[in-house]
Specification:
Helix content is 21%, strand content 29%. The chain contains ten helices and 28 strands.
Length: 503
């Protein structure tokens, strides 16, 4: 057996080196990557950990894994359930009594499965004018905001919608039930048993962490700029780790944590793409447990293929990551069948709406090609996902979202109609006031003290888009906001947030 494992490792390393060689660039940030085959781990690194001091990345460099961290939070909650300290089917207000009655029916399991309906705190804070990374947020900020919510996105258990709030609240529950700081509990009950000796939870952004890499975004015009979140938020993100530690976890998780891999279901028995802290899918003909992560300029990825006894880990300190996920998967699991080549008729250009979720798709022609998006070059259409049928388009994605969109007329309000909508609107749930201003025949939204106003672009009747990711629907006494929704899920991280007209 040892001889076989040695042969496998010898076969793994050259392929890893070949992939890395294509992406290594001098004087730029990079990535640490690793592959585990039958428990034998091979790791590599390329690029710089710090551009100011020309410090290279190594396989032992510490990087942040973003939302890959969610599975460690889920494992911590499961450990408390194994200890008999809580039940995954407990209502969360048993441990978080300060939350409003809107949360009465939400269970811990629904939080971990993203079927709770709880609004995403990052989206709420962005609407307040505090985009993530612009201030030192803490769990106190998160709780203050979630306590103010008087509604959920939907009835618990009726939809799947990814929300970071679920995992921040889960971390708080771990602390209250265990009586220990979250970082300490995870270290003792999850990392140490798994042999993850280089891993920790970033619960204090000022803590010195040896061998930690800085994170970067590409700067417009060339070069890079530092992008490091100075926030004390955890549970949803913020595990500092190495590619090797992630691989050790990936190898053990299928057998050690079966609870995480049970497919979550909706109240009606319908499927979701998630277990507890991990996405579940079948890729390249084999079951896959996976999660991606993005925090500031860091990017993370971990995928485990139990039947193949293979795990793949990627940690990068640049937000413009190279296509390593696809290339490593193709090399060590098998190539993905490329989408069918198909051209789409330009007659399908226009606006389409899902009447159930209000999600909107816009198709337009650019360079003689039908594309999808709300600006710029948009995205190419995948014929395995998008299917046109007259005035309808059917969408089926790997995330389990299946919906039909109906072509709708684009709303073209007159200046007089827009003038009636101008005014001041307030939401007490985020204690924020917006002003809708009419300028040059267009409607803009203004939030003090930001000097830059965002245009409200008309879509279907009485609805506007802001930047493609926010939908504003006007109604009798104000407007409702739906934000952070996309093709893959159909649901939003924020729905039904109401702003009432006050002037």
């Amino acid at each position: 057996m040892k001889e076989l494992l040695f042969v496998l490792l010898l076969a793994t390393s050259p392929r890893l080196d070949e992939i890395i060689a294509k992406h290594a660039k001098p004087n730029e940030p990079g990535c640490t990557v690793g592959v585990s085959s039958n428990g034998e781990i091979a790791t590599r690194a390329f690029g710089l950990a710090n551009l100011e001091y020309d410090i290279p990345l190594t396989p032992d460099s510490i990087l942040e894994s973003g939302s890959v961290s969610k599975q460690f939070t889920a494992a911590s909650v499961v450990q408390l359930a194994r200890d008999g300290k809580l039940s995954l089917d407990d209502r969360i207000r048993k441990y978080l009594p300060e939350l409003s009655s809107a949360y009465d029916k939400v269970t811990i399991r629904q939080m971990l499965a993203h079927t709770s309906g709880i609004r995403d705190w990052g989206t709420l804070m962005s609407l307040q004018g505090w985009r993530r990374g612009t201030r030192a947020d803490s769990h106190l900020h998160v709780l203050q905001l979630l306590v103010k919510q008087r509604a959920l996105n939907f009835e618990p258990g009726t939809e799947f919608s990814y929300s970071n709030s679920n995992y921040n609240l889960a971390a708080i529950i771990v602390e209250r039930v265990s009586g220990k700081p979250f970082a300490q509990f995870v270290q003792e009950r999850v990392f140490t048993p798994a042999g993850m000796t280089h891993s920790s939870v970033r619960d204090d952004w000022t803590r010195i962490v040896r061998n930690r890499a800085s994170a970067y975004d590409p700067r417009e015009g060339g070069g890079f700029e530092t992008d490091i979140h100075f926030e004390n938020i955890y549970g949803n993100c913020c595990v500092l780790t190495t590619a090797g530690d992630l691989l050790r976890w990936g190898d053990q998780m299928p057998a050690a944590w079966p609870e995480l891999q049970v497919p979550s279901k909706l109240n009606n028995g319908g499927p979701t793409p998630y277990g507890l802290g991990v996405f579940l899918s079948k890729t390249r003909g084999t079951p896959e447990l996976w999660h991606t992560g993005a925090t500031a300029g860091w990017r993370g990825y971990l995928a485990t293929y139990p039947e193949k006894k293979v795990s793949i880990a990627i940690l990068c300190n640049r937000s413009d990551t190279p296509p390593l996920i696809r290339e490593l998967g193709d090399a060590f699991i098998g190539p993905v069948t490329p989408p069918r080549k198909q051209s789409f008729d330009a007659k399908f250009a226009g606006l389409y709406r899902d009447s159930k979720t209000d999600a909107v798709l816009r198709f337009f022609v650019k360079d003689n090609e039908l594309r999808i998006g709300f600006g710029g070059n948009g995205q190419a259409l995948n014929p395995d996902v998008v299917h046109f049928d007259g005035d309808r388009v059917h969408l089926t994605t790997t995330d389990g979202y299946d919906a039909t969109y109906q072509r709708v007329a684009e709303w073209k309000p007159s200046p007089a109609e827009l003038k009636k909508l101008a005014g001041t609107y307030r939401s007490d749930e985020i204690w924020t006031t917006y002003e809708l201003r009419l300028k040059d025949g267009k409607l803009f939204v203004h939030l003090d003290p930001d000097p830059n106003d965002d245009e409200l672009v008309p879509t279907f009747a009485n609805a506007f888009h802001i930047g493609g990711g926010v939908l504003v629907t006007m109604n009798g006494d104000g407007f409702d906001v739906k934000s952070d929704f996309g093709m893959a899920s159909g649901t939003a991280r924020l729905e039904r947030l109401h702003f009432k007209r006050v002037q």
